[in-house]
Amino acid sequence: MTTYESGKIRVWDPVVRIFHWTLVLSFLVAWITGDELMTPHAWAGYLITILLLTRIVWGFIGTPHARFRDFVYSPSVIRDYFRKMFSRSEPRYLGHNPAGGVMVTLLILSLLITVISGMALYGNTDLAGPMAGIFQGETSADVFEEIHEFFTNFTLFLVILHVGGVIWSSFAHRENLAKSMLTGIKEVKQS
Amino acid sequence: MKRSCLILIFLTSSFSVAGASELDNMLTGYRDAGAAGFSAERGKLLWTKSHTIDGEQRSCSSCHTADPAAHGKHVKTGKPIEPIAVSANPERFTDMAKTEKWLRRNCKWTLGRECTPQEKGDLLTWLGGQEE
Amino acid sequence: MKKTLLILISLMLGLTASVALLAGHDEREQGDYHEYRESDHDDDDDDDRRGWLRRIAGSSDKGQYPARGQDPAFDAYRNECGDCHMAYPPNMLSRDSWRGVMASLENHFGDNAELDAETAGEIGSFLDRHAARTMDGAGTGRPARITETRWFRAQHHEIPARMVTNNPGVKSFSRCEACHTRAAEGGFDEHDVRIPGYGYWDD
After folding, report:
1. Is A1 among the domain residues?
2. N or C: which end of chain A has fewer CB within 10 A?
3. Cβ contacts (< 8 Å) between C62 and chain A: which residues?
4. Distance from CA of B70 to the nearest CA of C (A)
């Protein structure tokens, strides 16, 4: 990790940061174009798919704080962290804290289900996209549509929780976490 | 006074001739093809006559109704059809290509064959309110 | 870490499965399925080069008309093919299906819709240009009816017969404009649907 002037440290590498903000934009585009403008919607979805795959790979081979190993904790640690959050005594983490780790994982999973069901739906009813024609019949169309719609909304729900959590943590530890995700830099705090 | 009356009569009659020219041209064409003595009565009979095509009963009135001055409706799509009689819709038969197109289609649908020049002449005479 | 991941993944799969099961629970009419034969190749050379990209991208804004002024043959299409029924958006049918339609105008679903050769050629090319790239019927030309394509059936299969075929205000699925209030502009969004005698479509 690069250490800058007194106490600043680079936590988030460019891959993580570019992934994060491109994902935000793509999700926004996908949400807005919804059922209406299929071409930008499909392309936003493909972009999200590629972003997810990249992030997952990077989660195994990337910089230390990018790796899943760094922020996916055991259930007991997670439980403990939440308990401490409610008594406002949770410790500060340089990378994702345990709650954040759960959020990242849930978001990645939810988005994966969203894009896969989206492509399946697209291939079924519109006979378009990489899964065109694989699934036939009208029952599967309904199923994919429900799954896609549910996880679209579930992802949004997670996003709202995520933003809330980021704001909470920022105030609790007196730092601007959103800015850190932009610049990659956090302050090293002496405990 | 008499001369101005004559001029007036001449002018108005030339207008009416000009206004019916497309229809007249068509009738002339049918005469050239061998038809003669167009009759509005025969046209009217042709209009309401029923034919059995492909197991269906078909006539002009199926879509246009028995009264050509009334609004019609496409028998399948329900699309409204403007009146076909010139008396109710003066724009009818002012476009020769359009008239011939519809005559070809609709005679074939209704009768199972194209209408003969005689039949077309009779029909247009009746629908156009022409004096023969 | 492994345990957390397992828990979270199981949670997501469980959610997916529940949603899937609930989704499959609607009662619906069983239609006949046409055999779907996937066509690998367009017979248009130009398409083959860029076709793969289009097939992936889909470009399935079905129902949209070509942009105003974009194609001069559009007026001919609208005039001739919108005389008895609504001029259907060309991208609701595959190119091969449209060719089938144009080749059988003398018996156009029970009607005679003959055209002179020149107009037929103009409209035929127009349809070629704007037909759906991805639609069943590619290669076979069947189905020839928009209402029989899998795409159309998927969009409408939840609608009971009493609202359409047995509804005197509608009578047939081919009468898009009866329920789709913005059909003439190529707007088929379900929020613009008003079914005669029933009102909004509540999904």
Report:
1. no
2. C
3. 126
4. 17
Task: Give CA–CA dist A68/A61, Å, rounded.
Answer: 10
Q: Quote the tokens at residue C114.
A: 């003959």
Distance CA B126, CA B128 (A): 6
Domain count, chain A: 1
User: What pLDDT is recorded for position C50?
Assistant: 43
Smallest Cα distance from C71 to chain A, Å: 21
Window from A100-109, B9-18, C131-140 with minimum mean pLDDT: B9-18
Amino acid found at C122: E
* Domain at A68, CATH number: 1.20.950.20
* CA nearest neighbour of C141 among C88, C89, C101: C101
Pairing of strands B51-53, C194-195: unpaired
Q: Is the distance from CB of C132 to CB of C99 less than 8 angstroms? A: no
Neighbours of chain A (3+ CB pairs under 8 A): C
> What interface predicted TM-score (ipTM) does this complex get?
0.75
**Nearest alpha-carbon partner for A167 in A153, A181, A148:** A181
Dump strand ranges (E) for chain C. 194-195, 199-200
Backbone angles phi, psi at B52, to 5 degrees: -100, 110
- Kindly report, residue by residue over A62-114, the tens digit of the pLDDT: 999 999 999 999 999 999 999 998 888 888 899 999 999 999 999 999 999 99
Segment C127-131 mean pLDDT: 90
CB pair distance less than 8 Å for C15 and A133 = no
Beta bridge pairs of residue C200: C194
Whether C202 shows a pLDDT value over 70: the answer reads: no
A13 in helix, strand or coil? Answer: coil
Give the predicted TM-score (pTM) of the model. Answer: 0.68
Cβ separation of A125 and C155 shorter than 8 Å? yes
Q: Hey, what domains does chain B have and what are their CATH numbers? A: 38-132 (1.10.760.10)
Write out pLDDT tens, residues C51-104. 455 444 444 567 778 877 788 899 999 999 998 999 999 989 988 899 999 999
List the domain boundaries for chain C: 60-144, 158-203
**Could you give the angle at which helices B117-128 and B40-48 cross, rounded to 10 degrees?**
100
Residue A2 lies in a domain: no
Q: Beta-carbon neighbour count of residue C84 at 10 Å?
A: 18
Encoding tokens for residue B27?
A: 């009738």
Planar angle of CA A100, A102, A107, nearest 5 degrees: 95
Residue C85, helix vs strand vs coil: coil
Task: Say whether pLDDT at A3 is over 60.
Answer: no
Looking at chain C, which residue has its C-alpha nearest residue A73? C1
Has residue A130 been placed in a domain?
Answer: yes
